[in-house]
Amino acid sequence: MPSPYQTYQFPNGIRLVHRQTGSPVAHLGVAVNAGSRDEKPEEQGMAHFIEHLIFKGTSHRTARQVLDRIENVGADLNAFTTKEETTVYASFLSEYYGRTLELFSDILFSSTFPEDEMRKERDVVIDEINSYKDSPMEWIHDEFDTLIFGDHPLGKNILGTPSHLRKFSREQVLGFTRRQYFTNQLVISSVGDIGFSKLVKLTGKYFGVQPACEGQPERLSPPDFKKLDVTRKFSKHQSHIILGNRAYSYHDKERYALALITNMLGGPAMNSVLNLELREKHGIAYNLESNYQPLSDTGIFTIYLGTDTRMVDKAISLVMKELRKIRDEEMSSGRLKIRKEQLKGQIAISVEAHQNEMLSAGKSMLLFNKVDSVEEVITRVEAITPSDVLHVANEIFNPSALSSLIFTNGKK
User: Fold this and answer.
1) 117, pLDDT greater than 60
2) With left for phi above 0 and alpha for psi between -120 and 50, is residue 135 left, alpha or beta?
3) Is 409 within 8 Å of 239 (Cβ atoms)?
4) Which pLDDT band, with edges at 50, 70 and 90, does 411 fall under?
5) What is the pTM of this model?
6) Is 165 found in the same domain as 34?
7) What is the CATH number of the domain that holds 354?
8) What integer is the mean pLDDT of 238-265?
9) Residue 34: Cβ-neighbour burial (10 angstroms; 0-12, 13-18, 19+)
10) What is the count of structural domains for the chain?
11) What is the DSSP string of 96-133?
């Protein structure tokens, strides 16, 4: 079956990926292969800070005019920063493709980073950091990254720290963008009702004309890792727990088996293994999930749960019991088939959310220079065998490597 995605590369290296739909609502994003792991030690928080600053004025527009340009026609404008990417995206009526592309080109290539806006936005981001720390469910994940990656850039909080933010100068901001925002590391992703030839022409008008500036991110490999178990005092009623390990990168074939196991253990379905065992059977955890985040050269697997402090030891024991079962007992083909069907259904549903599809396609182009169809992904899920699951479980859930981080008030 031919791919539903059409791609094009401009002479300056910028890539475009598109799937045409009949929906009146379009989704467009620009992903740049630059994130928090690309920061120097003194730049911690810079990638995310720039994500804020690109909306604060260009050589053609004030900050207010940037927002008005497409929000005045009902568009939803947003952006985010990860360890390895910065993405700007919008959802809008398909008739406004040209307007959206022009705005994105303006903010990515003509932002001026005014000093007065930088001063105001520092306080906004510092407030974001403080509010984030008020949410232990989110904060503990960042702290776990620090636990397993240490002083490596992957171990640093994406938001940065107030002390770093207060020292950032306009020259540092410009220096980061010059060093990391390469045209061959930029992908425009689209899902909407527009013909591909028309989209190529519009994109070329605003992006294809940019001067070529090609390069590759220079990223440090993560250091060797040893198991760590850390407990920290936390003055709240509930305790928060993460168990986890380093995991496979985007380029490892084992990532599909780990994605299936992750979904089976603590995915969104209420019949996930840990939800049935801890919440339904024992009633000791309300918030519970497992996550697997692959990166370009490594990955992170985590199990998170929140529980009453008196139940911490029991909760960890129950989780370890379930992990031991997956390590020690090869899954039956019947049970594996059920879990494959569950994952396949969730993949198909996620693509129906066209904004998610657009973001996923852009990331895939950044990583692999192609986008797999849903059918191709499902074929890889179908190929997972019981021995694959057993192999992955014994690597990732090995007790000698599985680390823990606990936030607790200690009053058991």
Assistant:
1) yes
2) beta
3) yes
4) low
5) 0.94
6) yes
7) 3.30.830.10
8) 97
9) buried
10) 2
11) GHHHHHHHHHHHHHSB---HHHHHHHHHHHHHHHHHHH
